[in-house]
Design brief:
By secondary structure, the protein is mostly helical. Among the domains are: 54 residues, no CATH class; 67 residues, no CATH class. The radius of gyration is 20 Å and the shape is globular. A hairpin with a 5-residue loop joins strand 1 and strand 2. It contains seven helices and two strands, in the order H-H-E-E-H-H-H-H-H.
Length: 173
Amino acid sequence: MCWKTLLLLLLCYDAQATVAHRWSRAVLFPAAHRPKRSSSMPLNPVLQSSLEEVELLYEFLLAELDISPDLQISIKDEELASLRKASDFRTVCNDVIPKRIPDIRRLSASLASLPGVLKKEDFERTALTLAYAAYRTALSQGHQKDIWAQSLLSLFQALRHDLMRSSGSRVSA
């Protein structure tokens, strides 16, 4: 009788731990999971699914980007901007990644407390947020530059930490 009770408790504990882990994992980029009604944005868009797409994303980031006063990001190079993946790039940059300091700080705090490694799409979006923060840091002056630089550093540390965890190396602060 005792071993049956112990087995039942172990199964209940295992089931509870599995369910709690699955449902407690916070969504880092909530906008990716609830597109605007007026938008044709796909649910949870991902830019990189092949090596060619990784190289294309790199080209997008190297191309000159334009950030409008309402924080909309576009690619200035017309040839690159006309590609199908450029539309996905604009969608992720304009509708998914955070572009305001409080939102970026919230993301950094979530990343710092996240157990395990990032999913591919979360890593991609965090890297794009890092690129955006670097761009804003370069354009800012004075106190604003310091605030953007601090956000840039916290995102870099979160990505570095994730890379170290995924490679199995010990992470040192």
